[in-house]
Amino acid sequence: MNHIILKNGELNLTIQLISFFAAMFVTQMAVVEWRTNKNAMYKYLALSFGMLFAQVTVMTIIVVHSYWSGKTGPLAPLHIIDHALITASYIYLVAAFVTLKSTPKSRFIRTNFFVLAVISPFHILLWEIFGSTPLGPVLKISGDLTFEIWEAGLLIMATLAVLRSSVRLKRGLVTAFVLLLVKDVIYIYNTLTMDQPAPLLLFAEHLVVILFFYTIISTLHKKIIGDLLSMDREKTLITEKAYQDTIRALINSLEAKDLYTRGHSDRVTEHAMVLGSKLGFDLKEITKLYYGAILHDMGKIGISEDILNNPLSLGTDDFDRIKKHPEIGANIISSIESLKNIAPSILYHHERFDGSGYPKGLKGKDIPLHSRIIAICDAFDAMSSTRTYRDSMTREKAVRELVSGAGTQFDPDLVKIFVEFLGYQVIERDSSKSLPA
To answer: Which residue ranges form the domains of the chain, and what is each CATH number?
Structure first.
């Protein structure tokens, strides 16, 4: 029999120590949330879990004392303090959710703490006077029931307040509060059957507390992780907006110089997005293509307006200057840390598949894929648009020109995908055989 008692005592001590460290961890998490969010709800939650940690500490002292002394009865003052701390914890728990207005919270807290300040010393005094008399067990049971019923009422209030509130992670909080209610029911049952308490229920009471702490830790963990992800998304949105603002400022600067560029970059980008989608680009890759396409003519900002807006055919020298715009654009973009990875797309978008393009004379698949995509979209929009020195081509004629240039100027595989997207079918290499689908 003594061996069994020792085993149970060791198990009880182990469970209590687990509760102690779990309560300490929960309190730390609640304090972190309070410091992060700076609002009344998290302040009261931190105070509630702090009180609960203090209660678990007191209970751990009681269990350790009982284990080492061999006395199963609790120390009277500590037992009342244990109840008072739990009640105080639940008062703050209700206050965290009962209302967003501070005045009712303050009145609620003041009233409950006033009652607590009266009842707790009164019970300690009664215990000190009558604890050693036959009235001792009756006083203990009546005191326990008084606190447990009060605590159960507070938990019900907290649960209903959470259900009515707009707080996130309701399920976790409600589950945690219901577990505490179960613990109170078990405690009340054990109190009313003190002559022959059920051993399993005695341990179940402690195990339910551990489940409560586990639920709260999981809930706060999800909240903290959710906040971190939300912050990351917010930072990403801010970064993306900065990119877009930078790009739009660059494009506006270019469009102020080159009348033709107005709308051209947007149309080229729309077509490039289609090709990227057809090729199965992921979000990162298609975003990179987007920036390369929208900024592909950025280098023209370094070209004279007289040349850009010349209504006549350009001379050799002027055309040589125009041919510098991919390098100028790549240099400009390379100087922007967040955009420099798209510089190659801009630098090589006038390379030809047969190697006769500029500025480097790259050939075939040596030309970056994004540049090959932009080259097709750029040429198609150029042919489909009215220029200062010529009228626009019809859509079908522009398609025929693309097919004609497949394998020489353009990547033939990409031309086929693009032309089919436009509603045409490439039957043979001969452009005259490219007919509407």
So the answer is: 2-222 (1.20.1070), 236-436 (1.10.3210.10)
